[in-house]
Design brief:
The protein is mainly α and 294 residues long. It has one domain. Helix content is 80%, strand content 0%. Helix 1 packs across helix 5. It is globular and about 55 Å long.
């Protein structure tokens, strides 16, 4: 369990560092949409290579069932194709820590959907989590001042859209993952999602000015920041379980916040830190409560 916890935390930490490195690349002039598109296709292709090495015969099984193909295409377009660009857009208009904290509200969208579907009242833990997440989002977006937004509206809106799409990512692929495998489902989802958005992101407009730091940054967000992060987190979660994995995933925005301060010399308003803490506390309560009821 200790080994599994370390592996899971490492995967979540790499996701946090990925956001910070992506912010650095944006600051250096790399187009945000081109970067996220290139990352999706290459990281998805890398995961498909992992899937091929693990199970050569099973890589294309998902394409043999019409219902699975339709579900995969929906996931690729909405859960991946829309989630990744909006998340990076939120980073571009705010910072890695805030964007990561906003995206952590995804389980709340899942909770709202489940409560509405089951037509029931939320439990005390669920209600507490909802209040904390809403309070945290309010602090981040307004700094406690109801008269104005403290962050760019695009950062807030795109972050919430990303969280909603992330909620789709949490719920929609589960059946396909159980049937065909994690690397196969996520790999095809990322790769196809990247293909879908390529015309909008103008993938063919390859940046012409590169130096060692930009190349190193791109390699990081494709391999350690995406493919390796997915592999480590999912493998670690298979050891510790999905509930503990959900709690350990809260390490991602913490790493993003700390790394933004250390590596990018960014500063945060106290209410932003308080808001991020409230969101993480709410998600932690929700996750622990789910473990007790399962």
């Amino acid at each position: 369990m200790f080994r599994g916890a370390l592996i899971t935390l490492l995967g979540a930490g790499l996701w946090g560092l990925n956001a910070v490195v992506s912010k650095y690349l944006m600051a250096r002039g790399i187009d945000t949409m081109w970067m996220v598109n290139f990352r999706m296709i290459t990281s998805g292709f890398t995961l498909l290579i992992f899937a091929f090495i693990k199970n050569r015969r099973g890589l294309f099984d998902i394409w043999k069932d019409r219902a699975s193909v339709i579900r995969l295409l929906i996931i690729a377009l909405f859960a991946f194709g829309l989630c990744q660009p909006t998340y990076y857009l939120s980073i571009d208009y705010s910072n890695a820590g805030i964007a990561s904290a906003i995206q952590q509200t995804a389980p709340v969208f899942v909770l709202i959907y489940v409560i509405a579907k089951e037509r029931r009242r939320p439990t005390l833990a669920e209600l507490s989590a909802l209040i904390l997440v809403m309070a945290g989002s309010f602090l981040i977006s307004t700094h406690g001042d109801t008269g104005a937004l403290a962050i760019h509206p695009i950062a807030l809106i795109s972050g919430l859209v990303s969280a909603l799409c992330c909620a789709l990512y949490i719920t929609l692929p589960s059946d396909l993952i159980k049937r065909y495998g994690t690397f196969e489902t996520v790999g095809w989802g990322l790769f196809l999602g990247g293909i879908f958005i390529a015309p909008v992101c103008k993938l063919w407009n390859f940046p012409t000015q590169w130096d060692a730091s930009l190349i190193a940054g791109m390699i990081f967000i494709i391999l350690p920041g995406a493919a390796f992060a997915f592999a480590l987190f999912l493998y670690g979660t298979s050891i510790v379980g999905p509930v503990r994995g959900g709690v350990y995933n809260l390490f991602e925005p913490v790493v993003a916040l700390v790394a933004s301060v250390i590596l990018l010399s960014q500063s945060f308003h106290p209410t932003e830190i308080g808001g991020a803490a409230a969101i993480l506390a709410g998600i932690a309560i929700l996750t622990v409560a789910k473990e007790k009821t399962d």
